[in-house]
Design a protein that fits this description.
Glycosyltransferase; six-stranded antiparallel sheet; 32% helix
Length: 627
């Protein structure tokens, strides 16, 4: 049922996207200049909101309302236009209500937007769907948040009604209490030990839209405040984890498209809409219209805007996150994720320590280089173990074990069992990062499906050179890259069409470094072109760096980085920097020049220069200072 509901929504949106132009995608690329005047910045923000709403509202199917999508209806209601059409469309759509969070939150948003606009008959059709159609929670963090936020707001909208008027047999008061309890507990978890679905490229919308709904419509002032504060935290995290508005690794969840073309995802819709520092993705990434319909009710504060747009300062960021919930085969409900980002004007290097965060859609590490216009650019480099494992899926999913792989591929994750994929985490990958150096080691047992390594080499790289030393050199934008595979490999051209299936190949397209060895590894060193006289000088500097490694009995590396740090890393052990073991026990919830929070404190401080915003989730208060 979940797959059916999602497919219906996506089909409806894609149908609409084919009917109209995409103005921001086709327009001039925005600059990364800071707009200091807050009035002008608000005007630019409202202009972008109106652009999205006008685009969606422009899909006029007045002769056939059954072709309307929820996003079209939301845009029209936000613009207070075509209300008779909205009535007919809602009534038509509600004849077959969906099941689960992906139906619940859009229908709840329409019900809330439609107050005073939709007819009694149209509102009644939505309410009937919440009575007659069984709604399931799903099994992921975003599902539960969408489920409970929608149920909370609908229970407020229809207060004190009996259990026989709701799909679950519980009264409005009971649903309200249960939903409130979950939302509060989830916020407490996120602000004490970290988010499970951290920095997702698409699923960010499944958090941002419900929280905007809560901040806009909650009648309980404390819940309204919670929604607003989580939006601040969510977008501050997005701001410092992006380069020129493009979200980079690590990502708890991404997909086959945006793992390669980082820009073309819902996360870029939010950086475009909120900060104006990257183009909007194709069709505003589908879900964008649902956020835009309420976006005038929220604006990022100045301190977060400055963090997002200003990339003049190099910074190191360390965050504490957690894995997806484990249902089987583990004594730990949610493992810890130690996330590192090193960001400069020209590139960003990001990773977590490896292992399983999410078995299907995790992106563990990469370097992403800055480009003036990211549209259709594949400005990234990384390697991955493309594992396919029924046992891993059993740990994180509750479906019948014999059907795991097939069900995952049916549920819109078709690349999972493909050996050429670039998506997913592996328990047999371990990663060490020190500033702009990555060491990734692999030790894959003989009985594990797919025992090779895929390295991603972009079509946008320049001066790709394979040196006799074993180093592979390339330029990406103003970044110099040195990639050292630790086992023999070949280069294969990647399919241009349907990246999760074999297909048509094209010259000068992306390449896959294929290394068919189970004991393996990758070293990646990045630097700015500004640091060297020329590209050859960079190569010479890399070739002069001390490096030794072995693959048996376990992969092990000793490497002195460009930054002068001696890095020693052995598979199965904690890495050392200049003889000192990396101490994960001291990892904070957030630690950087911009976001800081002690683990389990529930207090996050957001800083840019003299601007400071403190989000205190213990007292549910926001404090702004500008010393």
């Amino acid at each position: 049922m979940k797959a059916r509901s999602i497919l219906l929504v996506i089909f409806s949106l894609l149908f609409c996207l084919s009917l109209n132009a995409q103005p921001s995608f086709r327009g001039i690329a925005p600059t990364q200049a800071v707009i200091k005047n807050t009035v002008l910045r608000r005007e630019a923000y409202e202009s972008r909101i109106n652009e999205v709403l006008a685009w969606y509202s422009g899909f006029n199917h007045k002769d056939d309302p059954t072709t309307a999508s929820i996003s079209i209806i939301a845009a029209k209601l936000a613009r207070h236009e075509d209300l008779a059409y909205c009535d007919r469309s809602v009534i038509s759509l509600m004849k077959e209500p969906g099941s689960g969070p992906f139906w619940m939150f859009p229908s709840a948003e329409i019900a809330l937007l439609g107050q005073g606009q939709l007819s009694a008959e149209a509102q009644k059709s939505i309410r009937k769907g919440w009575k007659t159609q069984i709604q399931t929670r799903g099994d992921t963090e975003n599902h539960w948040l969408m489920y409970y936020t929608s149920l909370y707001l609908m229970s407020e909208l229809y207060p004190h009604e009996a259990g026989d008027t709701w799909y679950n047999g519980k009264s409005s008061d009971e649903n309200l209490a249960e939903s409130k309890e979950y939302i509060i507990s989830w916020i407490g978890l996120v602000t004490s030990v970290g988010q499970g679905e951290y920095n997702p490229t698409h699923y960010i919308g499944e958090y941002a839209i419900p929280m905007l709904m809560l901040a806009t419509y909650a009648k309980d002032s404390s819940m309204k405040q919670r929604g607003h504060m989580i939006l601040d935290l969510l977008f501050a995290d997005l701001a410092e984890s992006s380069i020129n508005g493009v979200l980079h690794a690590p990502n708890s969840r991404t997909d086959d498209k945006s793992v390669i073309e980082h820009w073309n995802s819902l996360s870029s819709f939010f950086t475009w809409l909120l900060y104006g520092n990257t183009p909007a993705p194709y069709g505003y990434a589908s879900w964008g219209g649902m956020f835009a319909a309420l976006a005038s009710n929220y604006e990022v504060p100045d301190v977060i805007y400055r963090i997002a747009v200003d990339r003049s300062v190099t910074y190191l960021q360390k965050d504490l996150k957690r894995t997806r919930r484990r249902w089987r085969n583990s004594d730990v409900l949610m493992g810890r994720i130690y996330k590192t980002n090193y960001t400069t004007l020209d590139y960003a290097v990001g990773s977590y320590q490896g292992g399983l965060s999410d078995p299907i859609q995790t992106h563990v590490w990469d370097v992403t280089w800055a480009v003036p216009d990211p549209r259709d650019k594949h400005n990234t480099m990384f390697s991955v173990h493309p594992i396919s494992s029924n046992a891993d899926l059993q740990t994180y999913f509750t479906d019948p074990p014999d059907e795991m792989v097939q069900r995952v591929m049916f549920e819109l994750k078709p690349s999972y069992d493909w050996e050429g994929k670039f998506l997913g985490g592996s328990r047999y990958e371990q990663v060490m990062q020190n500033l702009d150096t990555i060491i990734a080691l692999y030790d894959i047992p003989a009985d594990v499906r797919f025992g090779h390594i895929n390295g991603f080499f972009s079509k946008d790289l320049a001066d790709l050179t394979v040196d006799k030393s074993g180093w592979i050199f390339a330029r990406g934008g103003n970044a110099y890259l040195a990639y050292r595979p630790l086992a023999p490999y070949t280069f294969n051209v990647i399919s241009r069409l349907k990246p999760w299936l074999p297909g048509i190949v094209s010259d000068n397209w992306d390449k896959r470094l294929y290394s068919p060895y189970r004991k393996n590894g990758t070293i990646l060193q990045v630097a700015s072109s500004k640091e060297f006289k020329d590209f050859q000088a960079f190569k010479n500097a890399i070739l002069a760096l001390p490096l030794s490694y072995k693959l048996d009995p376990q992969p092990s590396v000793s490497f002195t980085s460009l930054r002068g740090n001696n890095l020693v890393f052995t598979y199965g052990k904690i890495g050392t920097v200049n003889g000192n073991e990396m101490d994960y026990s001291k990892w904070k919830l957030y630690e950087s020049p911009y976001l800081n929070s002690e683990s389990k404190s529930n207090v996050i401080t957001i800083t840019y220069g003299q601007l400071k915003r403190v989000l205190n989730f213990n007292t549910m208060s926001i404090t702004d200072t500008s010393n």
